[in-house]
Each structure stands twice: as C-alpha cells, then as structure tokens.
Amino acid sequence: MYRKPIIGIVFLILAMFINNAAASPRSVSDSDDKRDNKFKIESANDKPREWKHSKNKKLKPSLGPYMTDEGSTAPKAYQNFGWNEKPYAFIQFDMDDLNTKKPLFVWWKWRDPDGHVVSFERERISNFSRDTLNLWNSLDNWDIHKQAGEWSVVTKWVNPSGGVGKFTNNFTVMPEPVSSILFLSGGAVLAIRRYWKRKK
User: Fold this and answer.
1) Which structural domains are found in the chain, ordered by start?
2) What are phi and psi of 34, to 5 degrees?
3) Which of 9, 12, 47, 97 has most Cβ atoms within 10 angstroms of its Cβ?
4) pTM for this predicted structure
5) 119-178: per-residue pLDDT in tens?
C-alpha cells in the first residue's frame, strides 16, 4: 500500500541529486587540492629576498669624512682654510665594507656661517672598480659663496643592505688678508687714541 509512494519519493530524491550534480561545476579532487596547497607552500618559502634597509647597521668609511684640499686624502690641519683656498669634503670607503651589488648613495649639504644651506647634492655610485672608493665634494661657485667664519658640511651615505652613516664636519674660513690688516690697523689706531686721551 505504501510501497508505491515510498518508491516515488526515492526516485524524486535521486532525480534531484543527479540534476544538482550535473549542474554544479567540476569539483577539485583531493590530489588536485593537495598539489595546490603544496605549490602555495613552496611559493611562500621561495619569496624573493627583500631589500633590508637597517638603520641600526652602521657603514663606517675607511677614511673621513673630513675637510681637505683638492685631490688630497689627508685632513686639513685644524680644519682651517685661508681666504684663497677652496675647501673639499672627502670620504673613502673600502670595497670589502660595501655591498657592491647595490649602489652607494652619498649626500652633501653645505651650510654657511649664517646657517643658510648653499648647496645640497646627491651622488649615486654603482661602478666599483677599485679596492677603495675616494669621493670629494666642493662648491663649484665657491668664490661667490665664500665668507669668513665657521661652515659645516653634513655628509650622509646609504648602501642598501650594506649600511648607513652620517657625519657633520665643521671648518673655518679665515678672513681676507687685506681686511684683516685693515681691521688690526683700525683697532691699533683706536687703542692709541684712547691711550693719548687717558694720558692728557
């Protein structure tokens, strides 16, 4: 009595299941899924090495930075320059301390005795062909900017994955000889006048 309705219901359920299976997209097999997960793990472990820019890693030059004369690698005595002398900032790096696969960036910032920035330059060095790397920097228009007093040059360098560094050099430009003589002679005249006034 109930056999026919039960058989009909069973056939309906089977028909619905077959239709849903036919309409749904192809499912990923266990083997495909495992292969996909394995590929993801391998690709995650095989990431390209990131560029490390560590602020804590210091890159120390083998010489400098300090002020010197043109073409010289020796520091200027007392960091003093005469009126007719042209100051140069100098720094030297040993190739063994650099990551030569990456460029070296060097910044130079010159500040006059009044505190004004008169020059800000950046160098990018990627040709490392010697055992040491010597770098000089000066002002092309030094005769226009020069003035007596204390100057400063901030030198900053960055070698990706190699390290960073920064240093400030202070140097003094002596006054022009003629103006110095006039200043001294004027002071001597004033001193003599005061002496004669007191004597009278």
Assistant:
1) 63-180 (2.60.40.2550)
2) -65, -40
3) 97
4) 0.63
5) 999 999 999 988 999 999 999 999 999 999 999 999 999 999 899 999 999 999 999 875
